[in-house]
Amino acid sequence: MVKARKYVVNKHFQGIPKREDFDIVEYDLPNIKNGEILVKVEWVSVDPYMRAYNPRHKPPYDQFGYQVAVVEDSKDPRYPVGTRVVSHTGWCDYSIIDTNATGAMGQVYKLPNLKGLSASYGVGSVGMPGATAYFGFLEICKPKAGETVVVTGAAGAVGSLVGQIAKIKGCRVVGFAGDDAKVEWLKEIGFDAAINYKTADIAAALKEAAPKGVDCYFDNVGGELSSTILYQMNDFGRVSVCGSISSYNDIGLPQATIVQPALVFKQLKIEGFLVVRWVNRFPEAFAELIKWIHSGQLKPREHVTEGFENIYDAFIGMLNGENVGKAVVKL
C-alpha cells in the first residue's frame, strides 16, 4: 500500500492565498482496479488560473493542476509501467488515475515525445501553457506578417511563448513586464521592444514602441494597462483575452477606464477563451512547439522550485510575479 500526500483547499481565498488555506493530507492509496494506473509525480505546475478558479469550487477540494508523472503500477495495457503521463490530478506526490475519465481539463495522456527535452516541458511549453499560447494567439488574433503585436504578462509562461510565436510569424512584438530584468530578457529572446509597466508612462512608451498602432493584443493581465493598450489599437484590431491576473487577488470589483469607445470606433474584435476549446487539437500544437524549440526559434525558460512542501511557496511566488517563464515544481 502506498502512502500519498496532497494539498487540500479548506476555504475560499480572500485576497492572496494564505498557507493556512491549504491542508496537507497524508493517506493510504487503495489497490488499483482495471482501467487504473498508479503514478508517482515528478513535476507539478503552478498557474494563475488556479487562483481565478478558486471561487468556482466548494471547499474542501483537492488542489487541481497539471502534473507529469511516471506509471508505477498499471491495469491498463495502454499505459505500461515506466510510461510518463500528463494529467490534471493536482498537487500530490502519488495518485491513482482512471485512464478513461474525462474531466473539465481533459483526459490523461502520454507525455509527448520531447526528443530529449526535459519532461517538465509537459506542464509548460509543450503542455497546457504552450497550447494556450499557440491556439489563443493564432486562432483568435490570426496574425499577419508585418503586423504589430502587444503582449502583457510577457515574461510569464504563456506570454513569453506568444511573443516568440508572433516573431516566428513575422510580426513586430512589444511586451509588457513588471521589472527591468524581465524587460531585458524579453529583448534577449527577440521582442522588438519591452516596457516596464510599473515605471513607464505606459501610453507614451507604447506610442514610441508601436508608432503605427497595435494590430493584435494578447491580454494576460486586464486592468488599466489593458484599457490603455486598447485605445492605441488600429481599426479592426484583434484582442485575445487569456486572463486578468492583475485582479485575481482583488476582493472588490477592480476599476479601470471604460473601453467601449475604443471597441466601437476602432471596430475591434475582442474574444476570451478557455484552452480546452482546442483540447482535441493539442497534439497539433505540441508537434509545432517541439519543432520550434529544437530549431532554436522558441526558447522556453523555467523557474524551478524543488520539493513537495514548497508547492505553496512556488504558487505565491508566481502570483507575485517572481518567476521568469514557466513556474514548475520538481518533486
Automatic annotation (TrEMBL):
GO terms for biological process: prostaglandin metabolic process. Pfam families: ADH_N_2 (PF16884), ADH_zinc_N (PF00107). GO terms for cellular component: cytoplasm. Its EC number is 1.3.1.48, 1.3.1.74. It is found in: Cytoplasm. One of its GO terms (molecular function) is 2-alkenal reductase [NAD(P)H] activity. Keywords: Acetylation, Cytoplasm, Fatty acid metabolism, Hydroxylation, Lipid metabolism, NADP, Oxidoreductase, Phosphoprotein, Prostaglandin metabolism. It catalyses: octanal + NADP(+) = (2E)-octenal + NADPH + H(+); hexanal + NADP(+) = (E)-hex-2-enal + NADPH + H(+); decanal + NADP(+) = (2E)-decenal + NADPH + H(+); nonan-2-one + NADP(+) = (3E)-nonen-2-one + NADPH + H(+). Residues 18-329 form the Enoyl reductase (ER) domain. Its main location: cytoplasm. InterPro entries: ADH-like_C (IPR013149), ADH_N_2 (IPR041694), ER (IPR020843), GroES-like_sf (IPR011032), MDR_fam (IPR045010), NAD(P)-bd_dom_sf (IPR036291), PTGR1 (IPR014190). Signal peptide: none annotated. Belongs to the NADP-dependent oxidoreductase L4BD family. Monomer or homodimer. This is Prostaglandin reductase 1. The gene is LOC113494712.
